[in-house]
């Protein structure tokens, strides 16, 4: 990983303003989640806008020319085009030598993308990869459902990865369990329409995000520490070797509970959930870009990153910041 960047933060909706939309309060949201505000994309902002801006920032930070990008991976669950949005980002960047495709694993998307990118780099197939995590969940939230609308925000972050003599991904573990899918969904609902006798198709629409908050919370605080420990084992490291714990920014209580279970002190936990809420695939690269920009993370530091979310999917990656 040789560069990181984020899209410019979008307009803010704070807890007080949100309390005018649904029956909630700043106090309830902050005490249950640690979130004070979220950034939301206006109707004229596309996912391509956000993803391209983040990718461009990461390329500038890495000092890598657009022409030398071999692969663009776009981790998102909220594409502009269901056929694929990554190629539109490729066109916007002018990265004509690259191949680009979307990868969907909800809030685990960045970690799944990081491991996918590493396989291409290790195999020697590609030398330079841009990995973007970008989501506009505000398009899919039911803004009258106080159980979910308080949590989510929009954004994009990106990293540049390059094949290197010293492999920076030290260990990883990816998991999914479709039997738990119903805890967190953004599902398609077909509306049967008979075209001719014996041919009925299902042109419908996607329903807003549904979440069983308690079950997702329970899943996160038990499964995420386990997956981090497995990734550490693969890396030949222990929790004492971790300089930074970089979790998907879903909820401060989840970040604290995972850190406590692993015995990692709070000062090693990276958090910007207060300012952004849950930005899904964008949350890890966005948080990383902030701590790199303010100099908290130093070259050589060991980062334990983990994502978790819909699918259900979860995974951890232990890497050394270049
Ligand atoms: N304001 C006020 N009251 C509320 C609100 C709200 N925004 N939301 C729920 N309540 C009420 C409920 O109606 C309920 O009232 P009742 O007891 O009278 O029925 C009470 O508060 C408790 O509700 P719970 O849902 O049990 O609240 P909980 O303490 O579990 O907190 C929360 C909810 C914050 C959502 C928590 O469950 C959580 O963080 N879960 C994890 C969610 C998460 O991280 N999801 C992201 C996954 S990533 C991805 O892939 C998208």
Element layout with pairings:
Blueprint: E1 3-6, E2 12-14, H1 15-18, H2 26-33, E3 37-39, H3 47-62, E4 71-75, H4 86-93, E5 99-103, H5 109-123, E6 128-136, H6 146-149, E7 154-162, E8 169-176, E9 184-185, E10 188-189, E11 192-196, E12 199-202, E13 205-206, E14 210-211, H7 213-235, E15 244-247, H8 252-262, H9 273-276, H10 283-293, E16 302-309, E17 313-320
Parallel strand pairs: 4-5, 4-6, 15-16
Antiparallel strand pairs: 1-7, 2-3, 6-7, 8-17, 9-14, 10-13, 11-12, 16-17
The chain binds acetyl coenzyme *A.
Determine Rg (CA atoms, Å).
19 Å
CATH class of the largest domain: Alpha Beta
H/E series: EEHHEHEHEHEHEEEEEEEEHEHHHEE
Structural class: alpha+beta
Shape: globular
Q: Helix amount, in percent?
A: 25-40%
CATH superfamily of the largest domain: Thiolase/Chalcone synthase
Spatial order of the strands in the main sheet? 1-7-6-4-5
Structure, described:
- The chain is of the alpha+beta class and 322 residues long.
- The protein has two domains: 3-166, Thiolase/Chalcone synthase (Peroxisomal Thiolase, Chain A, domain 1, 3-Layer(aba) Sandwich), CATH 3.40.47.10; 170-181 and 208-320, Peroxisomal Thiolase, Chain A, domain 1.
- Helix content is 32%, strand content 26%.
- The protein contains ten helices and 17 strands.
- A five-stranded mixed beta sheet has the order 1-7-6-4-5, sandwiched between helices.
- The protein is globular.
- It binds acetyl coenzyme *A.
- The site of acetyl coenzyme *A has 22 residues, from helix 2, helix 6 and helix 7.
- The active site is at residues 107, 248, 278.
